Amino acid sequence: MSTDSIALPMVDEESRPLVDRLHDWVTTVDHKRLGILYILYALFFLVVGGIEATVMRIQLIRPHNDFVSPQVFNRMFTMHGTTMIFFVVMPVMFGFANYLIPLMIGARDMAFPRLNAFSFWLSAFGGILLYFSLVGANGLYGAGNAPDVGWFAYAPLTAQTFSRGHSTDFWTLALLVSGFGSIGTAINILTSILCLRCPGMKLGKMPLLAWLNLVMAGLVLLAIGPLTAAQIMLCLDRYLGAHFFDTQAGGSAVIWMHFFWIFGHPEVYILVIPAFAFVSEIVPVFSRKAMFGYPIMVAATVAIGFLSMTVWAHHMFTVGMSSNANTFFVLSTMAIGVPTGIKIFNWLATMWGGKIHFQTPMLFCIAFLFQFLIAGLTGIMMSAAPFDWQLGNSYFVVAHFHYVIVGGILCALFGAFYYWFPKMTGRMYNETLGKLQFWLFVLGFHLTFDFMHIPGLLGMPRRIYTYEPGRGWDNWNLIVTVGALVQGVSILIFVGNLLWSRFKGKTAGSDPWDAWTLEWTTSSPPPVYNFATIPTVRSRRPLWDLKHPEDPDWKYE
Amino acid sequence: MDPNNTYARWDFTVVVTLFLSAVPAFAQTAPPSLSPTNIFAPASTPANTILGLSLFVLAVTGTIFIVVFSLLIYVVVKFRKRVDDDRQEPPQVYGSNQVELAWTVIPVLIVVALFMATARVIGSVQKAAQPNNAIEVIAIGHQYWWEYRYPALHVVTANELHVPVSDPAHPTPTFIKLLSADTDHSFWVPRLNGKTDLIPNHPNSMWIDPHETGLYLGQCAQYCGTQHAKMLLRVYVQSRDEFDRWIQQQSQPPQLSDAASEGKYVFETTACVNCHAVAGTVADGRFGPDLSHLMSRDTIAAGAAPNTAENLRLWIRNPDAIKPGSRMPAMELSDRELDAVTAYLATLR
């Protein structure tokens, strides 16, 4: 890597015609622009998926409600799940990884800029394909117009016999196409982190965000393969007369479950490890302390990566596996609690003895810690297979994984948005609106997802478009719906804050948080080439060394 | 292993009561009044065994929560930036091997304890041997209804499962073989046992031994298509005498009266017989529920509506009015034919 400085002529962005500027965005191979494209794309689908959730919550506000038909409700939960996992959380994580990794490892771009653009447009096309089913899937009579098989699409409901028309095909193809995009991005992240680090940045001196994304990218490479294979087999079943999952011709419904969950469980960690990465960057800066136990944080992440490949069948405790198989998956699942616990304790130890600043990014990280703790503990409950025989597929499970995804991942994401917004736009967000959004969101979140556990304990299964009165579920469902609406208001404030601040916010400067990693050394927003001179580092916190020459980190690491 | 052994009274109960007295109290006082499908109100050995483990796990996770949550609150309050802050950075600490070893080893020990408790319960529920006097039932999941067969007793019925009460001193458990005719389903009556899926080409089994008579509710717990929500489960637990009488009645063909002969004619000359069976007649369809003793059931359409003459007539005229998307087609009968068929069905006792 050259350390020569590059002098580029400054182009005045605003003076060029709109069409030219849009063209630049469509043809860009710049990691920062692709990162922002990923993020905007995910935010759009977050709103779409949120509307789908709202429709379901209105339907469930009281028993025997008829706000939507069963057919529409079933499409709503299928589209909500598929959208949120594949077209919100994955792309937004890839977006942040794209934007931040080169800046944090002192590189000028990702390793393969064109592959990067190709991967983004594949993912984008996947999302469009999924929603095109609303127009394009009107095949045969009774076929419906959007996928309605649930986001894990258990066989044989996806067979031609039970799913006529083309809605399931749109679902299959959307995941197939976006899966290729994910693999491309994973290769890019791995290569960039392994090959493009600036001088002095050994693996042990990378920011934790780079380490965690390295593990995430490795998991993507391992997990997307089985999903892609399963989708291709499903296509063969539906159109070429294969019988992999076609139970009427001797196929196996259980094989689909194995294929899906050996993708599906690592997928949970693909989503949550980048969230850990945000927290591991934000908590130290706002506690004014170095990360506690960096090596064991890395080791715990790698351990989670490996263990996550061995736990998939805990999604299948009720399908009638042998008691030996059940026992194995109980053990592997419980074991993953150990490295996860280590992480929580290390974040707490980082805050211990610090001076905690309560700006919005840190507030969201504290909420993350609290909620992820509960999510982890309800996970432990369900890892005890017999307890899962009662809790599995009930609203308790729905509450549990929303605790992970909304209470954990989304809260960490909000923190990341507020933390890096000044870097991405050069403007500061509005702190008052940020705090208002935080408190509203936490209120709405807990109204919805705390109370959602209870109907599950009282026997309410998931994926039902309506329920019988007299089961003791009515009041809980009412509260849950009210909470969902509060969360909706909070999201609107969030989007409004970002839009307003993008144009009217105060100028942020290059280092508004007095932070320590390389992205804060360059201007906000960074120039196309990121760094005029490729930096050289001696420790994990190069800016700390710069700001405290009397007591630099490299003396201790 | 004896299906009647009560693991709930094991050594852990002591720990449970110590740690989290609130949950057992909830479990003992709240039961059926809170919800007829409350998992904390078991009435059968497997459900009871599961509850025992559940309370232990709740106690352990509850304790972890209290400890870590208190730590979090302490850290946030104690180490907040003060108003009179001196603007100096706090001392930098990079880690501590002793502390990190401690919070690795302690969780490992907790995992070992949880794992061993869980493994015992898996064995006691899954490996329970079937005693000779057990009732055998085959439950077959269909898109949006349940078929029940008692192979040894020559009874076929639908949607309402009848089993004898099981006296803990002389257990008469019911062993249920779970099959599916189409998509995946799941049998879940929370007060009797956890759920087990019904998967085509993948026979499963489960057992229950209800200790008290009464009606136990549940519903399909694996998404199976449009009307998954109205695939309700009703288990009638009866005294041994009542159960024997019920079996006796169900194993006889229905007594047909001439009064309903017009309805019988309509029923047997339309598409009804393609899907439905009535013992002792030409109707022998297997796609829909067996109607031989329809009038002995409290509900129709897998528990979706009470079994009244009006509901039955509405169901035949337009099933979507009760269960939109069910597999039963609207039969397009005239009013006269509808009345006749309804009258005929009303004689099937």
Structure notes:
The complex is a heterodimer of chains A (557) and B (349). By secondary structure, chain A is mostly helical. Chain A is 65% helix and 0% strand. Chain A contains 16 helices and no strands. Chain A has helices at residues 18-27, 31-59, 70-104, 113-136, 167-195, 208-239, 253-287, 294-307, 323-335, 337-351, 360-383, 385-391, 395-425, 431-457, 474-504, 542-547. Chain B is of the alpha+beta class and 349 residues long. Chain B folds into 3 domains: 7-82 and 92-126, Helix Hairpins, CATH 1.10.287; 135-250, Cupredoxins -  blue copper proteins (Immunoglobulin-like, Sandwich); 258-345, Cupredoxins -  blue copper proteins (Immunoglobulin-like, Sandwich), CATH 2.60.40. In chain B, 37% of the residues lie in helices and 17% in strands. Chain B is built from 10 helices and 12 strands. In chain B, the strands form 4 sheets. In chain B, strands 3-2-1-5-8 form a 5-stranded mixed sheet. In chain B, 44% of the residues are buried. Residues 1-22 of chain B have low confidence and may be disordered. Classes of the chains: A mainly alpha (557), B alpha+beta (349). At the A-B interface, helix 3, helix 7, helix 8, helix 9 and helix 10 of A face helix 4, helix 5 and strand 9 of B.
